[in-house]
Amino acid sequence: MPDVHVLVNDFVVKLRKRKIEGSKATAKQTAELLRSVISQQRMPHVNQAGALIDAIKMVGEQLIAANPVELAVGNIVRRVLHIIREEDLSLATAAIGGLNLSAESDEDDNVDRDDHPVLSAAAVAAAARSTLRPPSLQALLEDVPNPAAVPRSSSSGGDSEGKSKCGFMFGSYICRAAADKTSKSWKLKHNVIEAVNELIQDISTCHEQIAEQAVEHIHQNEVILTLGNSRTVMEFLCAAKEKKRSFRVFVAEGAPRYQGHVLAKELVARGLQTTVITDSAIFAMISRVNMVIVGAHAVMANGGVIAPIGLNMVALAAKRHAVPFVVLAGIHKLCPLYPHNPEVLLNELKSPSDLLDFGEFSDCMDFGSGAGSHLLHVVNPAFDYVPPKLVNLFITDTSRSDVYLVLSNYMKIRRPACIYLWLHLMKFVTVFDLSPGGHNPSYMYRLIADYYSAVDLVVQRRPAS
């Protein structure tokens, strides 16, 4: 297996030179690299989770600095950090739960001992507090029965027997603690790698999972508007076509790179009725459109969208004509940062050659001054920012259609009481954003809480002590 430092350096070079295009490819390769880092990380005897977190943060800092505009890199680093913390907490809670000894009854009562360990609230709290460190001796001894509470026998033999029982219980407790600690040491890395494998699988299938929801949103004889070229949008539209939905697609060409031309050719090859329009014609054509469906570069914590240049104009036109503006984005594009965070770089400038050939710049140079100062400046930004107030719905690869399907079964029952219950359940669905296949912009904070830890929002290693 190649050395992990070589893999990291090669990937950093690719990010700096922008050799990896697309958030999906970047996210998948980042997750695969972090999996290699975890698998080759040597685990210490204590604080295994802390060692993994430090290793991931050390690599994550380099990757984020190599291409700060590609927010998917930081998203995956934070996702892996969250996975490590969750797995460590799960193992710590299970270990402390298994170490709880059930209280023995008095011999005079002649009651059998309960063989099932009892997980006390104090043990769970201790596990939560010690997420990044192994249980301390004090935590292990919290649930040991107090010897003073054990009834003493009047005979010296009974007293020695009670002491031997307490000593046996204490010895068994410490032995089980050592065994659970050893088990946790090798289980942690294995569980984290398995979770990262699931993350990679989710990234690989995000297009298909989003496309499965197309039939719920695209209806017969509708007109859909999109801009530029997005594979997620293409798979979404083609999935609706495969479900025998007949609709028409307007594709804005997406100057200056004209990626809309590529998408239009692919849609026509898949049998969709497609019309290519110029970007300047969007406002004129929006009144004929039933829905705007676009992709995204990143989704911020406030529900705002970083998208290809020109989409803010599309969102404003859709808002003006009350046309739903729908954004398709895999969950790996969800960024837990806000646009005003200093570490967020919202844009980058592309080469002016996309607009003008370099040979044409010579006509715009002032050679009379001798320095050849520029009279013409070309600005070619790559991204737009769409505020959350212009977005109506996010469709991600985390669908909640199962909840909706369970509730819809109530419609099969015609009794008034059940219909009344159905109405209240549908109100619950609306209030808590459980509509099938989509999220409101205000729901982003819930997704962030599920996939990220607050302590990892800023990826920075702990200072050396």
Can you describe this structure in just a few lines?
The protein has 465 residues and is of the alpha/beta class. The chain contains 15 helices and eleven strands.
Structure description:
It is a single chain. The chain has about 475 residues and is an alpha/beta fold. About 45% of the residues lie in helices and about 10% in strands. It is built from 15 helices and eleven strands. The chain has helices at about 5-15, 25-40, 50-65, 70-100, 120-130, 135-140, 155-205, 205-210, 230-240, 260-270, 280-285, 310-320, 400-410, 415-430, 445-450, and strands at about 225, 250, 275, 290-295, 300, 305-310, 325-330, 365, 375, 385, 395. A six-stranded parallel sheet has the order 3-2-1-4-7-11, with helices on both faces. Strands 5-6-10 form a three-stranded antiparallel sheet, covered by helices on one side. A two-stranded antiparallel ribbon has the order 8-9. Helix 2 (about 25-40) runs antiparallel to helix 3 (about 50-65). Mean pLDDT is about 80; it is low at about 100-115, about 115-145, about 145-155 and about 400-435.
